[in-house]
Request: fold
Amino acid sequence: MPLRTGVRCAVLIGDESQLPVQVKRKATLDADFERSLFERLISLGHPRHLLDVQYRMHPGISKFPLSRFYLGKVTDGPNVLQRDYERKLLAGPMYGPYSFIDIKGGTESSGEHGMSLSNTAEAAAVTRIGERLFNESVRSGQKLAVGVVSPYKVQVHAIQESLGRLECWAHGGREGFSLKVQTVHGFQGAEEDVIVFSAVHSNSHGSVGLLADWRRTNLALTRAK
Reply:
């Protein structure tokens, strides 16, 4: 509609490597309504300008998404290459710029109507990490913004409930520390100092569910500083 008001110049800003608008009805999916105008114009060969420097992520975090999803066309800015950009928030060899944590014994389970998934072992692990980050923020006096991201709403609710039972949250937390729990889609356009990603999936047939859409994986992996 805005393009029908006689404008002489229109600038579209977007990233086709992240998630489009959510479309649920089969008829609209079949009609390709989730495909944005931005994507359609690119596919038709219209010229575009790529913002090819990222200033958010530590290089250890950005290395995979920049090579896999942006095909090496985006590079790290000088600010994130500085030695002091790396923050060691938790003690221990497993906590670097990024960490993969194997949750042994965790299994996925279906929510109501089987439309969403959760993993209680992962929710418990995320809660422990959130508590440790809170305690370290209190001890050091550092301000810290934490985001917890999951593809599934049921897992988001499970993590919120688990965190809500912690004594530190029961007393209102502390000024300078924030923790948000959202779906991947809900975190689009956002960033935090630390992101904890709960992938949920643990099954015998190798299914990754919603993460089969590489744009969702890209979005989840690029929210952290």
Residues 120-140 form the longest helix (21 residues). Helices lie at 26-30, 37-43, 59-68, 78-81, 120-140, 153-164, 167-170, 214-221. The chain has eight helices and seven strands.
